[in-house]
């Protein structure tokens, strides 16, 4: 099995001048992108980056950003992506054990910054992949149960085992999706797991990545898809709900990040046409299942047939795939709990019907998915409970048209204490970032109690 990113470099070398990346008026061919990767590799070598070193990535969506990420993998580094919107303490946590970070704008970070322009200015060098199979290739972070981002470690062997660069490994739903990847819209950051993995799939399918320009009017996806004549894009559930009309060029809209209401999925098919794909996956595993437009029309409650090994044990879904993470960085207890005998506990409640279709029934963990990012209730509750005049704090999630789900807080004040909701929100924002900030803060006299004697947090939303 070829070490990552070997298959990608081979693909680019064979593609010649075929367009693979579009950024504004600039169209970059495979040969130019390969040259950028080789130059970025030389720049990293000149700065002493070696196999096993941690390299942070704070980059947007440009050909140079893509080249820098690939080059870091060529050196065998441990690539740590930093997504926008994190609080300063969280960024420091992510970069705490890295050697340097590649940036395309000034940032206050605790490690040396490598401006991407300086990196790309280096002479070309040999781009032979140096990553060792058991080395960590990348650390993909979710919001952690302690409040600090939790990093999933994926090895170079696991990245090499992934399906995206190998058409012979594509599951049926991915094979259908790949037919529509002529112009795949990319936005946000290429260090995003979903954005990068479907970008690699696009290149393997013969398409190009198209960087979205900022949108200042109307819903982002509707405007960006039309403006860039995109044939495919990833979208969150709230973004899907804001789509109002068919778009001429669009062939595939991949809904990802959180569960979607079956009725709204069918409605989206009616409005947008047979372009809606519904993906289900986790940071720890990558894609688990995908429902095609035809599948949504027939079984909108299902997320499709699993594309990986899947078992339901006592109501909880376990999956296994060669590309899964090996564990959580610096957290052996959580690793032992979730990664069990080669399987991953998804902590999602599920069933598989006799025809092999997967249905999600709920969660076995206390999380809220805001704009496709997992937020743990526990850290938010602890920040709130530590504030003056707050005796107890409880956090629950509820569906939200704008963000998929939203955080709602309920606080019991101390005797005679007055609670300032805005100060509580500010405390959460400063410690955990804006995605964790409660949409509402409600003062209550006491928390409802379930028959088990534990707080009945769901009852708070009904009160």
Strand % is: 25-35%
User: Which spans of ≥5 residues are poorly predicted at pLDDT below 50?
Assistant: none
CATH superfamily of the largest domain: ANL, N-terminal domain
Distance between the termini: 57 Å
The number of domains: 2
Would you give the CATH topology of the largest domain? Answer: Rossmann fold
Main beta sheet: 8 strands, mixed
Assigned CATH architecture of the largest domain: 3-Layer(aba) Sandwich
Global outline: globular
- Summing up helix and strand content along with how strands pair, one would put the structural category as alpha/beta
The spatial strand order of the largest sheet comes to 2-1-10-9-11-12-13-14
Can you describe this structure?
With 463 residues, the protein is of the alpha/beta class. The chain folds into two domains: 6-361, 3-Layer(aba) Sandwich (Rossmann fold); 367-462, 2-Layer Sandwich (GMP Synthetase, Chain A, domain 3), CATH 3.30.300. The protein contains 16 helices and 25 strands. It has an eight-stranded mixed β-sheet with strand order 2-1-10-9-11-12-13-14, sandwiched between helices. Strands 6-5-3-4-7-8-17 form a seven-stranded mixed β-sheet. Helix 8 links the parallel strand 9 and strand 10 (208-211). Helix 1 crosses helix 2, helix 2 (30-46) packs across helix 3 and helix 14 crosses helix 15. The chain is globular and about 70 Å long. The N and C termini lie far apart (57 Å). 51% of the residues are buried. The mean pLDDT is 93. It comes from Virgisporangium aliadipatigenens. Residues 14-328 form the AMP-dependent synthetase/ligase domain. Residues 380-454 form the AMP-binding enzyme C-terminal domain. GO terms for molecular function: acid-thiol ligase activity. This is AMP-dependent synthetase.
